Amino acid sequence: MKNNSITIKQQEAHDLPAIYRLIEEAFASVQESNHREQFLVTRLLSSPGFIPELSLTAWIQNELVGYILLTEIEILSDSTSMPSLSLAPLAVRPKFQKQGIGAALIKEAHKRACQLNYETILVLGHKDYYPRFGYKKAENFGITFPFEVQPEFCMVKELTPGAASRAAGQVKYPKAFFEY
């Protein structure tokens, strides 16, 4: 990665203005975006599902270049509720994209989620990007989403082998994901 070393650390309160600017920049030209991801982050950071250890920033020297947030959600079946995580958003400053920063953030987030004993992570994301990190179509495990979206964009990552099959059911997102 071009002689730049990345430092990944837990987000601190004073990082928030820079995180919001980074998210705006990262999603500015994304056609599928509603360009309100920074407001989603504001809501998620104050929601009951917020886990400070899973709100991560990536830095090159003193410049914020990337951000990832994993928030707790549930997968509901007829008989049980299984905690899971939702990956949203992942953002990398445009001039630093395609340099491995997003990959480094995802791998670190996975590692920290495992340390916190989470077994699965769900993402609504690019069908060609996330599979390289072990994400598979959620529908293959009987996991459904509470809204209309093409199945190839709905994916699950097993942090524990077999966990996605045990999680079969409908994803329940906290209301913070939907408020505007």
TrEMBL record:
Span of domain N-acetyltransferase: 6-160
Keywords: Transferase
CDD domains linked to this entry: NAT_SF
GO terms, molecular function: acyltransferase activity, transferring groups other than amino-acyl groups
One Pfam family, short name: Acetyltransf_7
SUPFAM superfamilies recorded: Acyl-CoA N-acyltransferases (Nat)
InterPro entries for the chain: Acyl_CoA_acyltransferase, GNAT_dom
Top-level taxon of the source organism: Bacteria
Keyword Transferase: yes
Name of the featured protein: Acetyltransferase, GNAT family
